[in-house]
């Protein structure tokens, strides 16, 4: 990833910890929070892929709500509309991973964009709540193209909006399949593997793997 002209970051799972909702979920259903959070995230991503394949797009807010309801029913968790509202609100205030702020400060001086499945209505409050409004230069949502990652049209959006050729863009995601999709599109793609997970077997691999965003400045300078 030698000296990319711009860096493009995935949001959920990469900059923001989707599992920070576990705290509230544990408050609502003691001892069941982690299980719900894992299942909710897995179902949310599954629905993005299925809706893209079916050409039946709905925004990430709807997909996230649908996934939450399915996960609660699958786990037989008693669920009210107040639970739903509180958990969806928590999605607008996810924790920033601890190393992100310093890493972004060290990477400044080039466009630093978010490219996410999230809708603008979800991403704008999330970025503002984390105090990243002055740090992230572009917030790009798949809603501009009407299909979810890893469809190539999503990555093309970053090229179009940043005005930077694909080969000059460094892409960063904690979702291995997203990093591979970006790599196949033509970005230099880095997988942030905080959990030490096995690489996805998709016939291709990310260009680089790091354990946290703290390792990124050395990789791109
Ligand atoms: C994002 O697009 C993949 O959900 C992840 O932010």
Q: Kindly estimate the percentage of residues that lie in beta strands according to DSSP.
A: 5-15%
β-strand number: 8
Distance between the termini: 9 Å
Ligand set = (2S)-2-hydroxypropanoic acid
Radius of gyration, in Å, reads 17 Å
Helix content: 40-55%
Average pLDDT rating: 97
Order the strands across the largest sheet as they lie in space. Answer: 5-4-1-6-7-8
What structural category characterises the helix and strand content?
alpha/beta
Q: List unreliable stretches of 5+ residues.
A: none
Number of helices: 9
Form type = globular
Secondary-structure element order, as H and E?
A: EEHHHHEHEHEHEHEEH
Largest sheet, if any? 6 strands, parallel
Q: How would you explain this protein's 3D organization?
A:
The longest helix is centred in the N-terminal third of the chain and has 22 residues, at 33-54. The protein contains nine helices and eight strands. By secondary structure, it is α/β, with parallel strands linked by helices. It is globular, with a radius of gyration of 17 Å. The strands form two sheets. Strands 5-4-1-6-7-8 form a six-stranded parallel beta sheet, sandwiched between helices. A two-stranded antiparallel ribbon has the order 2-3. Helix 1 (22-28) crosses helix 2 and helix 2 (33-54) crosses helix 3 (60-74). The chain has helices spanning 22-28, 33-54, 60-74, 81-90, 100-107, 120-129, 152-162, 176-185, 216-220; strands at 6-9, 16-17, 95-96, 112-116, 138-141, 169-173, 188-192, 208-210. The structure holds (2S)-2-hydroxypropanoic acid. (2S)-2-hydroxypropanoic acid binds next to loops.
């Amino acid at each position: 990833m030698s000296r990319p002209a711009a860096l493009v970051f995935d949001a959920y799972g990469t900059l923001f910890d989707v599992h920070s909702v576990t705290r509230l979920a544990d408050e609502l259903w003691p001892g069941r929070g982690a299980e719900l959070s894992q299942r909710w995230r897995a179902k949310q991503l599954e629905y993005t892929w299925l809706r893209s394949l079916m050409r039946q797009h709905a925004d990430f807010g709807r997909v996230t709500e649908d996934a939450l309801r399915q996960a609660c029913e699958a786990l037989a968790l008693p669920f009210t509309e107040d639970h739903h509202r509180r958990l969806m609100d928590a999605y607008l205030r996810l924790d920033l991973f601890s190393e992100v702020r310093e890493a972004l400060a060290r990477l400044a001086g080039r466009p630093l964009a978010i490219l996410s499945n999230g809708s603008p209505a979800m991403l704008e409050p999330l970025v503002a709540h984390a105090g990243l409004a002055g740090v992230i230069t572009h917030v790009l949502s798949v809603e501009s193209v009407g299909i979810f990652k890893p469809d190539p049209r999503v990555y093309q959006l970053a090229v179009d909006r940043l005005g930077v050729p694909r080969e000059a863009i460094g892409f960063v995601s904690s979702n291995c399949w997203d990093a591979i999709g970006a790599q196949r599109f033509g970005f230099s793609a880095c997988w942030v593997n905080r959990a030490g997970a096995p690489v996805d077997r998709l016939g291709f691999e990310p260009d680089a793997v790091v354990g946290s965003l703290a390792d990124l400045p050395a990789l791109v300078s």
